[in-house]
TrEMBL record, chain A:
CDD domains noted in UniProt: ABC_MJ0796_LolCDE_FtsE
GO molecular function annotation: ATP binding; ATP hydrolysis activity; transmembrane transporter activity
Span of domain ABC transporter: 5-230
PANTHER family: ABC TRANSPORTER RELATED (PTHR24220:SF685), IMPORT ATP-BINDING PROTEIN (PTHR24220)
Assigned GO CC terms: membrane protein complex; plasma membrane
Name by which UniProt lists this protein: Putative ABC transport system ATP-binding protein
From TrEMBL, chain B:
Name of the featured protein: DNA-binding PadR family transcriptional regulator
GO molecular function per UniProt: DNA binding
Transcription regulator PadR N-terminal domain boundaries: 7-77
Organism this protein belongs to: Thermocatellispora tengchongensis
Keyword Cell wall biogenesis/degradation (UniProt): no
InterPro entries in alphabetical order: Tscrpt_reg_PadR_C, Tscrpt_reg_PadR_N, WH-like_DNA-bd_sf, WH_DNA-bd_sf
């Protein structure tokens, strides 16, 4: 199986010296194509930090992050931005749709930025929204739909196109358990189609969809737990 | 519960013999609820004694079919109508283990919690995999969901234990 994302001793500290916050302390982790890995851990344990590093939204203070063989630290900003846009789908912890665009336009936007022509980008966006069960509200603005529907749109945006790496930070936050299961089903299907998915969740029932569950504690992987759950 | 009520529910769809009842019971609850043919016949004879089912004809293979009576239907309706009260759970070994770990000198409670949490997660992963199987019936999926929710409750409690232990200075230790 080919490795899609790899963190090698990746660390992230905020600030320096005495007062520095060591959000992530040298974590090594790789996710292969077709694999769903869940990250669990108490609040503040470094889960979002880990996801941000994996997606190239943030840089490690030490260590290395590789996406499909490309060392993110060695990429020029422009190349990094392009890789992020084309290869990585990101569902953020706080849903961040553009308020003045409809759900459809929000989902189509990253594809248009990729250079896909508008008509086709919209078709893809429509299909992605339908896939997450938000097809009927595609033309509405984010403020005109429910929290759960906004969340679905954010997921559609992360799945649209040929994303090889999907990073999802609490994607089931505003959803009931049945809808949450459907979202996990979608992420799982993406994996089975060859994507690598890294999922942060507080909810054990969603983590249980993963092939592997990583427990973070104080910025480090709990290895005792990893040994048992990687079966 | 009641294997009793499960069998009555199956019989409400029409007469069946023992092997058929066992097969249908397992199909709707999943392998999660093993039931052997001996249990089926013991239960049927008690139901017959209580007037809730009657024996029918023997078929060519010598198998006796059972049919539900009016009293049986009334009992089944009562069962569906009446909510269950959480039964007195048998003493939960995990809870006792953790309480003991807290008060026994030299035990790393956090390690006990963490090991249990990983094992419980592995169980949930197995249940979820079973749920994803193709061609699974909705009834079976909901039975698995029930087990997943229960397992999750244990997992949440373990998370809670860890958070409380991390924030509380250890007490009561020799
Ligand atoms: N920009 C920042 N500046 C300083 N400290 C930060 C910054 N971002 C995060 N941190 C700190 O890094 C640690 C890890 O944060 P992170 O957001 O990764 O946690 P998390 O595991 O995602 O938590 P949650 O479950 O609450 O989302 C925390 O202690 C947090 O306060
Ligand atoms: Mg977070």
């Amino acid at each position: 199986m080919s490795v899609v994302v790899e963190l090698a001793e990746a660390a992230r500290a905020y600030g320096e010296g005495e007062g520095a916050v060591h959000a992530l302390k040298g974590v090594s982790l790789s996710v292969a194509a077709g694999e769903l890995v869940a990250v669990m851990g108490p609040s503040g344990s470094g889960k979002s930090t880990l996801l941000n590093l994996a997606g190239g939204l943030d840089r490690p203070t030490s260590g290395r992050v590789t996406v499909e063989g490309a060392d993110l630290g060695a990429l020029a900003p422009k190349a990094l931005a392009a890789l992020r846009r084309r290869r990585v789908g990101y569902v953020f912890q706080e849903v961040n749709l553009i308020p003045s665009l409809s759900l459809l336009e929000n989902v189509a936007l990253p594809r248009e930025l990729d250079g896909v022509r508008a008509g086709r980008a919209r078709e893809e966006a429509r299909a992605a929204l339908a896939e997450v069960g938000a097809g009927h509200v595609a033309e509405r603005l984010p403020e005109e739909v429910s929290g759960g529907q906004r969340q679905r749109a954010a997921i559609a945006r992360a799945l649209v196109g040929e994303r090889r790496l999907v990073l999802a930070d609490e994607p089931t936050g505003a959803l009931d358990t049945h809808t949450g299961d459907q979202i996990l089903g979608l992420l799982r299907a993406r994996c089975d189609a060859g994507a690598a998915v890294l999922l942060v969740t507080h909810e054990p029932r969603y983590a249980a969809w993963a092939d592997r569950v990583v427990f973070l504690r104080d910025g480090a992987v709990d290895t005792a737990a990893a040994a048992v759950s990687a079966r | 519960m009641s294997i009793r009520h499960g069998l009555l529910a199956l019989l409400s769809a029409g007469p069946r013999h023992g092997y058929q009842l066992r097969a249908e019971f397992v199909a709707s609850t999943g392998a999660s609820w093993p039931l052997n043919i001996g249990q089926v016949y013991t239960t049927l004879s008690r139901l017959e004694r209580d007037g809730l089912v009657v024996q029918g004809e023997e078929d060519a293979q010598g198998r006796v079919s059972y049919a539900i009576t009016d009293d049986g239907r009334a009992e089944l309706e009562r069962w569906f109508r009446t909510p269950l009260v959480p039964a007195d759970r048998p003493r939960d070994e995990l809870v006792i283990k953790l309480a003991m770990a807290m008060t026994t000198p030299g035990v790393d409670v956090a390690a006990v919690v963490q090991a249990q949490r990983a094992a419980t997660m592995a169980v949930m992963q197995d249940l979820t995999r079973a749920k994803r199987a193709e061609g699974i019936t909705t009834a079976h999926r909901l039975v698995l969901d029930s087990m997943i929710f229960r397992t999750e409750a244990e997992q949440r409690w373990l998370d809670h234990c860890e958070a409380v232990l991390a924030a509380t200075p250890q007490e009561g230790r020799a």
